[in-house]
């Protein structure tokens, strides 16, 4: 991101979002109505029913279906719109029977979310469609396009169906028959067909920051949402529920409604907001055990019915208390604010890390985090200082929120949010500067080893990785070589990010992507650890790090009542699997033997020959060996505080962590 642009060009552009402007007075109209009571000050926004959430968007036109309920009498709101009276005791909330779901967009969110919904709802057919043929082909193969712990098993169970089996375990009083499961998850490029058949359509397309034109560098590009919505509008059945799963600017549900109305003025659709909170690297775990499912709907009878129908889909595995229903725009806004506040915690700790380093008194940012995290009001998560936050979400969503604040002429609010990004950029630049400074102010003739390229551990996602920014800064110093290794990322993805980072040809020629840590560290003057992979902690550090999957899981005994049910749910089957693993003392993925064999890859499969294995199989760094292969004085710049400084110092390394004393 170009921070100068963020700092200098205040992106106050009235009426940028037509859908927003329709519901709010535009920034200009606000300014011009300074004298009209209750309309000019920020307080007047609080008085606006739209902003309060009571005047949620106009409902779809009443359905023409014979069985559709009558709308309740409407109240007139401040902006002249009519809104149904909500909260009446006879509000019908009968969920519509959902038999067919379509996901538009088979990306990091669409693919895993669809898979988990299909997994827990075997009676619902889930079609996942995407325009990208390669991606769809990967979802249909054994080389999924996304590496997430446990994802392949979930996909195989739903996509391929399972074998029937009889479970006999010593802890069970009798054998349990598990029926064969029919496939109910289909990945394809048949966008129109899948939309035509769906009761619920999740829109999961990308919403990056605009890179050109109006609002470039700060506004969200919703063109993929528009395009997907147009296809939905032209092809969906009447009554289909449209769900915004993508992270969107506040007000996008209204834009979707407008597009639907334009193409299908006589047809009724409800638009729900259902933002996704999964984090990459833990996507399956987050989807299986979400902190909350947020559903935003119009506070009207059809809106509430649509929300109830969606709730019923999640209720297959999520406890009701975790499903939160609010109005559409609160939901859209909450997603942006959640990411902004998570990032704010990281920037706060990164700011503290700079202070620890400059203080020179030995204050350690990890100690500070520990102390803060014990305060139950603060909590321990997202307090890990490092080289900054990366990834496709935080930066984009903070920009999105700040942009909205600027549009609303809330400059102080926008500045407040943008400060989080300034610290993030400052932190990564500070790191690169310190590496150069410690290497006597010049990288000429030196080799720099970079361990970690993914934006975080546990994922193969390289989008907006912090590593690419730091590598760019280091490359400007014209080192002999920058060697990069990441145990989870494909070479092509790393190369792609680097080639798009704006390096000159001469700088690009100095970059080498390696397949292991030995080749990376050989003859290097410094090792930069940029992703918190456990492999980089090293095998010297006491016990080798546990590989996930081998942990002895606590078996949920309440779920083990599976045998009392005629057709155990997947949650109960998972509890049986945990029990079987415990009894077999093995982390085997399919202890009950339910999975069907995978279809073998075609001869010469590119992914097989590339040998992309699971990161779990990658070798742990042996720092003793690294010490022998590096140039003196063997610098380790630990950007994620993952190595054991004292042990590495004992091996002869000079180690600098984040927020750990003077540089
Ligand atoms: N990545 C995450 O961890 C995460 C988490 C929560 C929310 N989100 C949000 O979810 C949304 C999707 O993110 P992602 O990471 O899955 O993006 P992605 O780029 O991985 O996937 C988006 C997919 O949509 C497809 N697509 C675009 N237009 C289409 C169309 N008209 N018809 C069919 N397919 C189309 C693309 O080909 C692509 O495969 C974004 O708004 C993002 O902010 C992402
Ligand atoms: O204490 C911490 C925690 C994270 N990070 C970094 O922050 C970035 C983002 O990490 P994380 O939030 O775990 O991953 P994401 O997949 O980006 O998930 C975020 O963005 C998603 C997309 O909107 C949301 O759904 C998730 O709830 C939200 O956590 C990564 O570079 C991490 O290394 C830190 O530096 N310190």
Automatic annotation (TrEMBL):
Top-level lineage group: Eukaryota
Enzyme class: oxidoreductase
GO BP, sorted A to Z: glycosaminoglycan biosynthetic process; polysaccharide biosynthetic process
Low complexity: bias regions: 23-37, 53-64
Location of region: Disordered: 1-91
Pathway named in the protein's UniProt entry: Nucleotide-sugar biosynthesis; UDP-alpha-D-glucuronate biosynthesis; UDP-alpha-D-glucuronate from UDP-alpha-D-glucose: step 1/1
EC number(s) on file: 1.1.1.22
Entries under InterPro entries matching the protein: 6-PGluconate_DH-like_C_sf, NAD(P)-bd_dom_sf, UDP-Glc/GDP-Man, UDP-Glc/GDP-Man_DH_C, UDP-Glc/GDP-Man_DH_C_sf, UDP-Glc/GDP-Man_DH_dimer, UDP-Glc/GDP-Man_DH_N, UDPglc_DH_bac
Binding site for substrate: 277-280, 335, 382-386, 390, 456
GO CC, one annotated term: nucleus
Domain UDP-glucose/GDP-mannose dehydrogenase C-terminal: residue ranges: 449-546
Start-end of Basic and acidic residues biased regions: 67-77
Catalytic activity: UDP-alpha-D-glucose + 2 NAD(+) + H2O = UDP-alpha-D-glucuronate + 2 NADH + 3 H(+)
Pfam family, one: UDPG_MGDP_dh_N
Active-site residues, as the UniProt record annotates them: 393 (nucleophile)
Residue numbers binding NAD(+): 130, 135, 207, 247, 280, 396, 463
Family: Belongs to the UDP-glucose/GDP-mannose dehydrogenase family.
Protein name in UniProt: UDP-glucose 6-dehydrogenase
Organism, scientific name: Diplogelasinospora grovesii
Classification lineage: Eukaryota, Fungi, Dikarya, Ascomycota, Pezizomycotina
């Amino acid at each position: 991101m170009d921070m100068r642009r963020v700092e200098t060009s205040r992106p106050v552009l009235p009426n940028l979002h037509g859908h927003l402007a329709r519901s709010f007075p535009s920034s200009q109209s606000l300014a011009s109505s300074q004298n009209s009571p209750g309309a000019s000050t920020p307080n007047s926004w609080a008085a606006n029913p739209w902003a309060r959430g009571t005047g949620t968007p106009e409902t779809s036109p009443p359905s023409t279906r014979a069985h559709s309920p009558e709308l309740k009498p409407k109240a007139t709101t401040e902006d002249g719109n009519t809104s149904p009276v909500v909260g009446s005791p006879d509000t019908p909330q009968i969920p519509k029977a959902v038999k067919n779901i379509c996901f538009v967009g088979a990306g990091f969110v669409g693919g895993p979310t669809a898979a988990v919904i299909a997994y827990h709802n075997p009676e619902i057919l889930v079609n996942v469609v995407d325009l990208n043929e390669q991606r769809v082909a990967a979802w249909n193969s054994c080389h999924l396009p996304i590496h997430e712990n446990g994802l392949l098993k979930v996909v195989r169970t739903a996509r391929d169906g399972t074998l029937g089996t009889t479970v006999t375990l010593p802890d069970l009083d009798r054998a349990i028959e598990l029926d064969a499961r029919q496939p109910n998850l289909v990945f394809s490029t048949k966008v129109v067909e899948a939309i035509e058949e769906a009761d619920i359509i999740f829109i999961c397309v990308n919403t990056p920051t605009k890179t050109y034109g109006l609002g470039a560098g700060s506004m969200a590009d919703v063109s993929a949402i528009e395009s997907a919505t147009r296809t939905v509008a032209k092809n969906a059945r009447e009554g289909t529920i449209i769900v915004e799963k993508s992270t969107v600017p506040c007000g996008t549900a209204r834009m979707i409604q407008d597009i639907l109305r334009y193409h299908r003025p006589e047809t009724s659709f409800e638009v729900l907001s259902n933002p996704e909170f999964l984090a990459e690297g833990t996507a399956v775990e987050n989807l299986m055990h979400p902190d909350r499912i947020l559903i935003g709907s119009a506070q009207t009878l059809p809106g509430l019915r649509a929300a109830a129908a969606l709730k019923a889909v999640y209720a297959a595995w999520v406890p009701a208390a975790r499903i939160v229903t609010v109005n559409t725009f609160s939901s859209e806004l909450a997603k942006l604010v959640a990411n902004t506040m998570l990032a704010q915690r990281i920037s706060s700790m990164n700011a503290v890390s700079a202070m620890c380093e400059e203080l020179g008194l030995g204050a350690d940012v990890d100690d500070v985090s520990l102390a803060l995290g014990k305060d139950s009001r603060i909590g321990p998560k997202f307090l890990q200082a490092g080289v900054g936050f990366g990834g496709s979400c935080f930066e984009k969503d903070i920009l999105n929120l700040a942009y909205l604040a600027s549009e609303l002429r809330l400059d102080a609010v926008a500045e407040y949010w943008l400060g989080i990004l300034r610290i993030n950029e400052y932190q990564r630049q500070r790191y690169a500067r310190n590496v150069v400074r410690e290497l006597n102010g010049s990288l000429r003739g030196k080799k720099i080893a970079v361990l970690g390229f993914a934006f975080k551990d546990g994922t193969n996602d390289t989008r907006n990785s912090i590593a690419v920014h730091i590598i760019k800064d280091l490359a400007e110093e014209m080192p002999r070589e920058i060697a990069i290794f990441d145990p989870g990322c494909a070479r092509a993805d790393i190369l792609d990010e680097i080639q798009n980072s704006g390096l000159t040809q001469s700088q690009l020629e100095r970059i080498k992507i390696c397949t292991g840590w030995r080749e990376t560290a050989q003859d290097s003057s410094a090792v930069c650890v940029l992703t918190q992979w456990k492999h980089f902690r090293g095998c010297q550090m006491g016990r080798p790090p546990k590989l996930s999957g081998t942990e002895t899981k606590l078996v949920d005994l309440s779920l083990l009542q599976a045998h009392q049910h005629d057709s155990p749910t997947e949650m109960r089957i998972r509890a049986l699997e945990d029990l079987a693993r415990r009894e077999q003392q093995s982390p085997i993925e399919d202890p009950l033997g339910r999975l069907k064999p995978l279809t073998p890859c075609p001869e010469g499969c590119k992914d097989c020959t590339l040998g992309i294995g699971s990161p779990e199989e990658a070798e742990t760094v042996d720092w003793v060996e690294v010490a022998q292969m590096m140039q003196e004085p063997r610098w380790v710049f630990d950007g994620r505080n993952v190595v054991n400084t004292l042990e590495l110092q004992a091996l002869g390394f000079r180690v600098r962590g984040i927020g750990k004393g003077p540089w």
